[in-house]
Amino acid sequence: PWDGAVGGDGAVGGEDGGTFGSLVARTVHEEVRAVASASGGEDGSVGVLVPTDLMDEARGALDRGGVTAGEAGAGALDVQVSLLALSNAKGLEFDSVVVVEPGRIVSEQGHGLRALYVALTRCTRRLAIVYREPLPEPLAGWPTGEKKGPTAAGP
Asked: Residue 52 has what DSSP assignment?
């Protein structure tokens, strides 16, 4: 679960030694700030795309991190942050996207890497990837963030 300490090969937590869930919430907060800064203080949209089997954990992590997020069928697009399984994100675009566990997205979706492509192309300005499990081969060379453990933010 995301509220336990994460260690081993997928160690995360950054400088504060936080949990994977806190890393996800912190990354979302950073993306909200970055999008607002880039748009002159206006609220931009942030999509948090997670594998279906991690939706409950993601919701809890964001709640504990103080992130208000809408979900499919519950005003997902009425608030700045939208928490969505990939199946609910097709056709949508966000200023920033946080993709959580891309390897699991590939393994749970029937279309594998095509599903990952959909997740990675929902952003118009910024992309962050948060993971503790091994990345799928096409992302194996993805740069890691300086302070956030195995995550990265795009341009």
From this structure: G
